[in-house]
Amino acid sequence: MEQEFRALRKPKATSMDAHIKRFKQLRAEMDYQRLTRVAPLDKALVNLQFLSSLISGEDQMEDHIWETFQTALGARATTMPTEQLLAEAKAKDACRNSTSSALSQPDSNSFSLQAMVS
To answer: What residue numbers bound the domain in which 75 lies?
Structure first.
């Protein structure tokens, strides 16, 4: 189970919600299966594992976005609550997706201006 947790990567086609759900599921299964004398993973390791899971290696541009996100977090990445990290990643993903869809859709105002110029 731990090997699957550490190998988890977010494919580009997988939504952030689905990735976070799978990440939490694997972590819960690991916690459930661990021996009582073995300490659970500490917050820093869990957070860094989540950040690593965002870099899939299948899309350089996508990986760069998440590498920049991790860099921007700095030392906070190891000290912030995991739920806060997940929420910030989700917000970053939503913002990034809304920006890219807005850029790919033509603005109706630009067509109006273009029609007036023609």
So the answer is: 2-117
User: What's the total number of domains in the chain?
Assistant: 1
The torsion defined by the Cα of 25, 78, 52 and 42, in degrees rounded to 10, comes to: -40
pTM attached to this predicted model: 0.79
What percent helix, strand, coil does the chain show, rounded to 5?
75, 0, 25
In whole angstroms, give the CA distance from residue 104 to residue 73: 28
Whether the Cβ atoms of residue 1 and residue 41 lie closer than 8 Å to each other: no
Q: What is the dihedral of CA 80, 85, 88, 94, to 10 degrees?
A: 180
Name the H helices within 42-107.
43-53, 60-73, 76-79, 82-104
Rounded distance between C-alpha atoms, residue 62 and residue 64, angstroms:
5
pLDDT per residue of the chain (118 residues) written in tens, 0 to 9: 789 999 999 998 999 999 999 999 999 998 888 877 777 889 999 999 999 999 998 889 999 999 999 999 999 999 999 999 999 999 999 998 776 665 555 555 545 445 555 4
